[in-house]
Amino acid sequence: MKDLGDASFVLGIEILRDRSQGILGLSQKNYIEKILSRYGMESCKPMDTPVAKGDKFSLKQCPKNDLERTSMHDKPYALALGNLLYAQVYIHPDISFIVGVLGRYLSNPDMDHWIVVKRIMRYLKRTKDYMLIYRRSENLEIISYLLRHRHHHHHHHGPPTSPRSRRRHSRRESLPGLSLPPIIRPISTHNRRDSCPDPFPLSPTSRAETPSSFTTSNNATTPTRSQQSQQLVRYESDPVLMPPSSPLESPQPLSPSSYFYDEQHNYVAKAKQDLYDKQSDLAWPFGDLQGIDGDDFRETAYELFFTACRSSPGFGGQSSLTFYSKHENNNGVGGGAGGAPVSQSSRVKRALGLKMMRSTLDQRISAAESPAMSPLMSPLVSPVAGGSSPKSRLVKPRKQMSMADVMRVQMQVTEQSDNRLRKTLMRTLVGQLGRQAETIILPLELLRHLKPSEFNNFQEYHLWQKRQLKMIEAGLLLYPSIPVEKTNQFAMNLREIIKNGVEQPLDTGRNSDTMRTFSNSVLSLSMRNPDGGAPTNVCHWANGYPVNVHLYIPLLQSIFDLKEETSILDEVDEMLDLMKKTWTSLGINRSIHNVCFAWVLFQKYVETGQVEHDLLCASHAMLNEVASDAKKEKDPKYVEILKSVLSSLKDWGEKRLLAYQEYFQVEAAGEIENLLPVVLLAHKILGDVAPSGEGSEGKGGDRVDDYIRSSMKNAFENALQAANAKYTECQTKKEISEVMFQLAQEIEDLANKERQSYSPVLKKWHPTAAAVAALTLNNCYGFVLKQYLTEMMTTETSETIIVLQRAKKLEDILVQMVVEDSVDCEDGGKTVVTEMVPFEVDSTIVNILKRWMDASMQRGNYCFQKAKEHENWNPKSKSEPYAKSVVELMNLAKIIVQEFFLLPVPITEDLVQELATGLQNLFKEYTMFVAACGLKENYVPNLPPLTRCNRNSKFHKFWKIATPCRVTCEDPHMYGIYEARHPHACTSRGTQRLYIRINTLHYLLQHIPSLDKSLSLSKGVVPSIRHSFKNIQTPLTNSSKSTSYFETANSSILAACQHLSEVASYRLIFFDSNSFLYETLYAGDVASARIQPGLTVLKHNLKLMTAILTERARAQAMKEIMKACFDAFLMVLLAGGTSRMFNESDYIMIQEDFENLKAVFINCGEGLVGDEAVEKESEVVEGVIALMGLSTGELMETLTNIVLSDEANGVIGHKLPMPPTTRKWSRTDPNTILRVLCYRNDKTANHYLKRTFSIAKRR
């Protein structure tokens, strides 16, 4: 076996270690990347959540027939879900819920389920770098317990506890269970203040016993969640942890009632009361004291409260212990001796605008102990009483409750604990009746005087002792009011003793050295003088922040009824007066009390589900007092406490106000009216106490403006998130446009809801609330619209225009909303309107149309470029003798015109002209491409040098008859014009392709009128009131409205047809038929090389030409062929080269041949060329033939006379200047006469040419 070291990968899980920090991390990044690669989602868009808000799944989504199931045949749904399940099990429990939901549809999934699977993969891509972290801990601390039934071995008779009850159950009432991660509370530091005379700040009117200025709410009390949940009995110890020693100590079955009585008729609340709900989003502002829970603070607060009030009526003082309810008259049960009933109403409630309760505390208790409630309501026997006789189990007549009883019940303290406290105080204050509470170190006295025998079991005593030690540690060591040096010996001793006391109980006997050292250390630390002088009589063990506030908050929380959590007891005045007695011990003053009281009211409003708006109004009333205090109090510690409380309150409120459309439904929009003043006041106070440049700034109207803008943005983002979810499912650009269209509708609905429901409430603080909301929605949608237009730049023009038109409608609605809401403003809403970013729909549509036209022209250019690269000029078919590319081009042009008139915009004349100009340019470019086939001069032979005929030349002896034409048609049977009877056609492939080019141009000429008609006669074209996108090359004027849009293109096509016809004709004659009509004609001897064979070939070529060319192109082509034939005949006569010579007698045969050539075009042209045209074109040739019929002398004389008449300087000797070659043959042209003489087989001509022009003799 070989040691390979620490494992780094196990089953696809990467293991990362940091031993220096004691951290071990597990990562599945590689596995997730492998999954994404497997399903082709490496480049997918990451998502922030695995499931979208509002997604719902049901069996109705599953396919119901085979046709619907086919869409999922190629989707590996089960495999993908299995891959996600593996990631969920090990590293990603955050996808457990949605993977479990999708697993229900494995047998019959739908495309909706597959889309969610892909969304989970997008979420994994976002979180693939996250790891599961395990951290090493030196001290194993129990953080939480698993709640179990109290008597797991007995049948539980009571109803099951609610989740809220379980959450409020004490950790000492449960068995150890699963460990859960701790919830970290916000930590802050605060200050204490000296006492203040009044326990509660009252307005001047209330102090004078006049009606309060606060308005009492008439809202009915709403049942709270605590009324619907079963609560648990709170004991000092848990019998499950230590079995009861006697039957009397066994707990009785629980009653369905919320309260029950023990043997002394003291009622105890069943629910555990904590300082704050750790799961609430309302931040706890007073810091977190680790190791001390809410029960510890509550029990210690009651002990401190009772000690401070011990001399008050009902707490053991000289006055009566009887408590008189405010709702009972003097003749009632509560009329005990020595007491007087209090007033019928609470001045505190009047000041806070709170209503009185419906029933008295005694009435609620009487209802709780009524026999009708439950037969299980047997009284419990106090362990302290110790009585076990049957009499002790009988229900005694209920006595009237004292304030001590009220506070014990409200603080949820058992009579057993209360009796132990009373016992301790009696032992401590023997002979010291006048001793002040602030001179008593209560936890120390309790530890001195209470022994394990006074508890149900030893474990209960140990838990109680640890609570006292933790309170001493917190008050003297961790958070002392007077700082303690680390080197202080008393602090070191105390710290060591407390550490040992946590592990095992301390020996608190009189002779214990540990207890003696402990007492000395506690006394020394608590009696220190803040100035460093001699010790004082005042004990500073509970007045350090935040211990003092943690102890004071449970006292303030006790004013709320345990059954109706949103109601404050009518005895609140007396309770607050008694709480004031603790201020000296806790270092609380009026200002701190006001801050804490405002916090408690607001916290109760939040924890009870925000159902009692009177609590919120009471918080606002208290904040008014806090605002008054803040102007006078400048102590840094108080300011820090104030800022912490107000920041927590403000953050909670602003979280909802910044998204009020999400937190407040339409029917609850009025709740904003209650919350907003509280948040604004807290914001104002923070602004007053915060240093310059710190804290919150801006007026109330500005804050409301921020709330409106933020809420609108949040609502818009929610709508956009839903749209994005649909966007990821869209497969086409058209579906995306539909999403944008629906988004505009949702924004319109959102604006209407804001105007009708929320803006009327907010208008009290912001005069243009609806206008600001409309402005925000306008700018948000405009930003998304801009992104949409960027993505849809070149596609789906019609859908984009529809979206823009819908956006224009939305913009008009929002602008109208701004104008209507700003009508009473000084500037009429101009300031708000100027902030609105216009959608610029009209100009955007114009730009889109421009891009559409450019894109359409690019499509045409692409078709044109494709033709340039691939066009071979073969006919499309026998019945369609033109190029394929012209059909594609013309079809594309027609499609563009059709799409143009289908655009959902008004069509103007300028738009039509712009489109026509683009198409015309495209046709012109294509025409130039078709006509690019060379020039006719490329096929005309060069003129040979002039030589004079040598009569003795033997050249004719070496003349060889030209071979037949080797050029044939590519497919002689394609056109069906010549079979075996037409063997002499010699039209080459290139010439036939020229014919196809000519047909192609005529196809354009034929279809352009229909295109022009579509543009000219389409309905709905309106006169344009704007300029076109760019300078139009051929704008239509008033005098040319009937002119075709494609007039220039038509002219270009006709010129190209003329050019192609010339090139094709000269190629046919001088290239294809060269051997018949040029090379062999009259070669050697005129009589033996007549034109008849060439005419035969010519006739067949003409038939092939007429078969290939369309009817409209034949006449022009026939005329050009005739011209080419006549030019070829002239070239034979005047530039035939050394192979030709003519005698005067050849005139008759030449004239006869030319007449036969003319007859071919007159007779075989099928009427394409008229007689007059033939005669006109033949005039030049006939003039040259006439010259050949003249005698040599006549020719010499005529030439000499013409040259001499043209020569201005005269002639030197016998020499005449050489007439220039102009190729403009005529019988009067000297060069033409000279050439006739050069080819005259005559001695006289030979002499004349040698002597007069020095022309060389033929070789």
From TrEMBL:
Superkingdom = Eukaryota
Where are the compositionally biased (Basic residues) regions?
151-171
Give start-end positions of Polar residues composition bias. 203-232
**Record-linked InterPro entries:** Munc13_1 (IPR014770), Munc13_dom-2 (IPR014772), PATROL1_C (IPR057984), unc-13_homologue (IPR008528)
Q: What are the entry keywords?
A: Coiled coil
Q: Where is the MHD2 domain?
A: 1088-1199
The record places domain MHD1 at 801-943
Q: Where is the composition biased (Low complexity)?
A: 247-257
**Annotated region Disordered: where?**
151-233, 238-257, 381-400
What start-end ranges are recorded for coiled-coil regions in this protein?
A: 713-753
Q: Could you tell me what this protein is called?
A: Protein unc-13 homolog
Give the lineage: Eukaryota, Viridiplantae, Streptophyta, Embryophyta, Tracheophyta
